[in-house]
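Issue 218. Parser rejects a valid record. Input:
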Amino acid sequence: MNKILYWLLNRKFKSEFTGIDLEKMNDWLLSQSLDLGFISYFKYRDLTILKDMGRGLKQNDYWKAVGQRTELLMLVAKINELKKLNESKKYGKTGISNKVAKG
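Output the parser choked on:
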């Protein structure tokens, strides 16, 4: 059921999202990975959510916390994915060995 709902929502809203520059968005995400403020915020937010969950929450609050942490972790996963993609473009398909050879 959830997969169908996700598919329908994704299909409906995909056509409505216009004017979004994915390249600029990805560049911004990559720049955040180098920003110490972002890194500190991520650590603080992750720890806060985990502490709240550890103290025990009502069922609705618990699932909100799960969703917030999932979104936070997905953001970092997207940043890591962009880093790997950026490195492979920068150093070619040979990856780290080529990076070491040049650096």
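Fixed in the parser; the record now loads. The chain has five helices and no strands.
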